[in-house]
Amino acid sequence: MRRIQVPRQGGEKSVSTAVPHRVPKAMRSRVPLVGSAVRIRRDPLGFVQQIRRYGDVATFKLGPRTAYVVNHPELIRQMLVTDAEKFHKGVMFQKAQVLARNGLFTSEGEFHARQRRLIQPAVHASEIAGYTRTMGDHVQGLVTAWADGDVVRMDEVTFPLALGIVARVLFSTDLDPEAAAEVQETLPVLLRGLGQRALAPFDFLDRLPTPTNRAFERALPRFQAVVYRMIRQHRLDLGQHPDLLTSLLRAVDADTGAAMTDDQVYDEVTSMIIAGSETTAAAMSWAAYLLAAHPAAQRAVQDEVDDVLQGRPVRYEDLGRLQYTHRVVKETLRLYPTTWMLMRRPLVDVDLGGYRLPADAMVLFSIFALHRDPALFPDPEHFDPDRWLPARAETIPPHAYLPFGAGPRGCIGGPFSHTEASVFLATLAQRHTLVPVSDEPARIVTTLIPMPGPIPLAVRSRKEPPVSTSPEAVTR
């Protein structure tokens, strides 16, 4: 008998694969026809944490369909890595094609692998090192505009910040205020609509004239117009900017020699905007909120930043020395990962931990629920950056931490997002202390991403940290 052993706090959890085709325990619903759709709609995060109690693989009804939920980290990794070729992304990504069409976010197979190879160099560590100064300049421009006593809505300021950074470093352009405002207004509407469509019990609900659907249909052409305008402008001065967008416009099909059309370029640009703006903005907002709510952690970041940077702007090589800041970002992404739920669709019947997942089944897994599993993370609701100290991190079961997914379809922009959040915190900590203006905890808004609700924080300007007088700092 082969058993998968996963170390757990207070004991071990075993997943037996010796007995084939075990029957997953089902979560029952009292609502006929729609199954658990109403429960998911009302409290999606509570739902994914509740169904975790039903075992490593559980089922529930979503309309007429049986949905399978995978809760065990080893089995999730089997889907994402070991047996990745046996799965497609599933209905959530199929429905997202109305926005991202056939871009990296939604594509499959060899086409996805080819596009990933094309985009990968732009987000390689060597390139991210060069982006760090641009990130810092954008953050500096934001935080220097804040005065002592200001109240800042973090959930409002981080999206245009992240959008401006991704436009500058990946597309060598600054969006004009009108275009930036269009993306800032339309993209959250589109992601909220996709989140609801992914878990709709019946497909025809996507076409009903509900307020959410009407808002989606109005927002989509507005968003598309901005992206196509950026592509057309870039074609006019092709070759002037060695960036990702230029690489896409110059790319040719290996078989036909044909260049990518504007429609194909749109698909990839949209995928990068989604990955580089909304998700990164959420991470920065949550990190700022958590530090404001935990003054000792905020002071530790400030002390570390003052010691390492000595008053100068952060550089990429500094990030390896900002160990506590790194742990803050990592812990933020544990509590608030880039997505709360993902889907897969088996291409063939698959044995997963002794359970049979039939071909074409709807399979879900929740990174949010995984990261808050008390059997994997002691006191999981508590913000504790030091759980990532090396000695303590060794006790966390392998594959229990997946903020950007894993395997060939894992988020390609993970290192970019983590670096940007670290630069944001380091630059912010040099100048300001953040203080909550309310005792009410921040509300999670569940679109495709666990976005923060309103996060108003008061700004308290710090005394200027010590300024380095080294020649290196002066020339910078």
Search tags:
476 residues, alpha+beta, six-stranded mixed β-sheet, 17 helices, 15 strands, disordered C terminus
Give a brief outline of the structure.
The chain is of the alpha+beta class and 476 residues long. The protein is 48% helix and 13% strand.
Q: What can you tell me about this protein's structure?
A:
This protein is an alpha+beta fold. It has 17 helices and 15 strands. The strands form 5 sheets. The protein has a 6-stranded mixed sheet. A 3-stranded antiparallel sheet has the order 7-15-12. α11 crosses α16. The longest helix is centred in the middle third of the chain and has 32 residues, at 262-293. The N and C termini lie far apart (62 Å). Residues 1-14 and 466-476 have low confidence and may be disordered.
How are the SSEs placed, and which strands pair?
Layout: E1 3-8, E2 11-16, E3 25-26, H1 37-42, H2 44-50, E4 57-62, E5 65-70, H3 73-82, E6 87-88, H4 91-100, H5 109-119, H6 125-143, E7 151-153, H7 154-171, H8 177-198, H9 211-236, H10 244-250, H11 262-293, H12 295-309, H13 323-335, E8 342-346, E9 350-352, E10 355-357, E11 362-365, H14 367-371, H15 390-393, H16 414-431, E12 432-436, E13 444-446, E14 450-452, E15 456-461, H17 471-475
Parallel strand pairs: 3-4, 5-11
Antiparallel strand pairs: 1-2, 4-5, 6-8, 7-15, 8-11, 9-10, 12-15, 13-14
Helix pairs in contact: 4-8, 6-7, 6-16, 7-11, 8-9, 9-11, 11-13, 11-16, 12-13, 12-16, 13-16
